[in-house]
Design goal:
Layout (H helix, E strand, L loop, with lengths): L2 H84 L4 H48 L9 H20 L6
Helix pairs in contact: 1-2, 1-3
Length: 173
């Protein structure tokens, strides 16, 4: 083969390597974009689900507190009527009312404590959703861009080698 053909083939090989590296980088960028979009979609859906659960827990706790208050008022009203009908007054009725009120406070405190624990767990769940999404995104492979300078130097090297072999180094010297 004549020297220009060999040199052209070697240059084409270097250019092919650059094109393949660029293609691989483009494919990795495309895969990263899809993974990022999927991760963010999952993140938004998980946060929405956690927020929905949080709202449902809050509503259930408020409903339970309301039911406790209604039951306590009904119990106090019944006790007041019963005491009045039986002619009991004074400290014993006051202690009965304080006992019923204390039960109401304990029940409501338990509901509030349980809600606070659930809220803490849901906040942790939100943090975990964020951490998982961030970890997935941070774990994406960085696309390896082609080494244009190295490729240019290889093409120059091909030229110099061809000059030495076929022209005795006189072309560039």
């Amino acid at each position: 083969m004549c020297p220009p053909v060999i040199m052209a083939l070697q240059v084409a090989s270097v250019i092919g390597s650059v094109a393949a590296a660029q293609s691989a980088a483009d494919a990795q960028s495309s895969a990263n974009k899809r993974q990022y979009e999927n991760t963010m979609r999952a993140y938004r859906e998980n946060i929405a689900q956690t927020n929905l659960e949080h709202g449902q827990e809050r509503e259930a706790s408020m409903q339970k507190l309301n039911e406790n208050d209604i039951a306590a008022r009904a119990g106090m009203a019944t006790a007041t009527v019963a005491a009045g009908e039986s002619g009991v007054t004074g400290m014993s009725v006051d202690h009965l009312m304080m006992g019923l009120s204390g039960k109401q406070n304990r029940y409501n405190s338990a509901v509030t404590t349980n809600y606070d624990r659930v809220e803490g767990a849901l906040n942790n769940q939100r943090d975990n959703v964020y951490a998982n999404a961030a970890s997935t995104i941070n774990g994406l492979k960085t696309p390896a861009t082609p080494d244009y300078l190295g490729s240019a130097l290889k093409i120059g090297e091909v030229g110099v080698a061809a000059d030495k072999k076929y022209n005795g180094g006189k072309l560039f010297g």
